[in-house]
């Protein structure tokens, strides 16, 4: 039972850390264009050799 006194705050801290990391990635634009690279490689303007 005493182990829960340590594990619960650690789990809450890690959960909040993950939430802040996700919020930071949203704010920094990591998810702005998820399909852009996949479409760009298919619509390449390069001429074949």
TrEMBL record:
Instruction: Please tell me whether the keyword NAD is annotated for this protein.
Output: no
Instruction: Name the residues that span the membrane.
Output: 6-26
Query: At the top level of its lineage, which domain of life is listed?
Result: Bacteria
Pfam families for this protein: FixS (PF03597)
Keywords for this protein: Membrane, Transmembrane, Transmembrane helix
Which InterPro entries is this protein grouped with? Cyt_oxidase_maturation_cbb3
NCBIfam families per UniProt:
ccoS
Name this protein carries in UniProt: Cbb3-type cytochrome oxidase assembly protein CcoS
């Amino acid at each position: 039972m005493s182990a829960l006194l340590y594990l619960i705050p650690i789990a809450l801290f890690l959960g909040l850390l993950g939430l802040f990391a996700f919020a930071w990635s949203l704010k920094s634009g990591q998810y702005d264009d998820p399909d852009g690279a996949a479409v760009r490689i298919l619509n390449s303007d390069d001429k074949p050799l």
